[in-house]
Design goal:
This protein is mainly alpha-helical. The chain has a domain of 254 residues: Glycosyltransferase. 54% of the residues lie in helices and 9% in strands.
Length: 375
């Protein structure tokens, strides 16, 4: 344990030092992937907009460095115009406002953040398809595109916004929608072996399942590792918010699959089922996400089981720190290397990703003893 604490304290200090430097460069903007050492900035409407301010809130919570708070608040204010630009809003509202408005409200109790969070929770709830019991993913990508029947595994991480809205208002409608979507995930997304589908298409009129789609995984029946990671963490959060046994069992199932398929250094390849002729790039972001889910799961099971999940999550984070960190490279904005965003489209492969950085820092904070989650 002493060795664990030694690397953890060292890792946290290096995160703090690096974020102090990069925050001056990135400022109140919205990074996504780091190319040639520099984080590329996206529009505030892009799904990753919450991760940079969320990361700043994590470090602020520990350090009380006012420069981090100021930048995070400016990011949140910039997101206001996304709320009014209705056409840009999709299922990822939870990612965006949980890590900005909900985080700020939980830390500082600011009323304007509470108002933003509740407004967006209503907009997210409006995407629920009552026939298929799913929250619709995305909007049309081009004229004539119809993706009204699509739901994705990632959306599990948007559900905590709805649970928070019920907690704040006492209105159960939000949590009812979240649980209905969760039940659909159990029925249609999780395979018996614990692997997951990325995308399921439903008939939006009848709610019937039409097909499974590979999405960002290699194929419809492969095992995209970040999808598995979203399931590990998302289902663990569902159990946290509902205390329903079915979510605990599902979390264990996907967690065992994830752990069993990790390579020797405990950082996953981008898909767990790849043909021999396909390069097995790592996805450090999948490792960081899953580590957070495993640590939460460890807190929710008996002491006899907890060690399995805590050890697995800790080993992933330790490997990310020791083998994938960019701590001494001042020409690199990212914290951890070798994330793979979208291999099928050839986008952002073997680069730092802002959500990988965020979950890595959240995982460190959890290991340091801070159990309060923005989710």
């Amino acid at each position: 344990m002493a060795n664990n604490l030694a690397w953890l304290d060292e890792a946290w200090q290096k995160v703090n030092d690096k974020v102090k430097r990069t925050s001056k460069k990135i400022g109140p903007n919205f990074p996504h992937a780091s190319l040639n050492g520099s984080y590329q900035l996206e529009a505030p409407s892009w799904w990753t907009a919450g991760f940079w301010p969320g990361l700043l809130w994590l470090v602020y919570r520990e350090t009380k460095d006012e420069s981090f708070r100021e930048i995070a608040e400016q990011c949140e204010e910039k997101l206001d115009r996304v709320i009014t630009d209705y056409y840009k809003l999709d299922h990822d509202m939870g990612f965006m406002w949980t890590l900005t408005s909900v985080a700020r409200y939980k830390l500082l109790g600011e009323e304007d953040s509470k108002r933003r969070g509740l407004l967006v929770a209503n907009l997210l709830m409006g995407r629920f398809n009552a026939k298929g019991n799913y929250i619709r993913a995305w909007n049309p990508w081009f004229e004539g595109d119809d993706n009204s029947g699509l739901a994705i595994i990632d959306c599990l991480m948007n559900l905590p916004l709805l649970f928070w809205a019920t907690e704040i208002t006492g209105d159960p409608r939000y949590s009812i929608v979240a649980k209905k979507h969760g039940e659909t995930v159990l029925e249609h997304f999780i395979r018996k072996d614990g692997s997951v589908h990325h995308i399921i298409r439903f008939d939006p009129e009848t709610g019937e399942r039409v097909e499974a789609i590979g999405g960002q995984g290699f194929a419809s029946e492969s095992a995209w590792s970040r999808g598995a990671a979203w399931a590990v963490y998302g289902l663990s959060l569902l159990y946290k918010h509902t205390n329903e046994e079915k979510y605990l069992q599902a979390t264990k199932n996907v967690s065992h699959f994830f752990i069993a398929n990790l390579p020797e250094d405990d950082v996953p390849h981008w898909d767990f089922r790849l043909p021999e002729n396909i390069t097995k790039h790592r996805d450090s972001s999948a490792g960081a996400i899953a580590a957070c889910g495993l640590l939460l799961l460890a807190d929710q099971v008996s002491s006899t089981e907890a060690g399995i999940y805590k050890e697995a999550g800790t080993k992933i984070l330790k490997s990310l720190y020791e083998n994938y960190g960019a701590w001494e490279n001042e020409q690199e904005d990212g914290l951890i290397l070798e994330g793979t965003s979208h291999y099928p489209e050839g986008k952002n492969i073997d680069v730092p990703l802002i959500y990988g950085d965020y979950y890595f820092v959240e995982g460190l904070a959890t290991l340091k003893g801070n159990r309060e989650l923005f989710w």
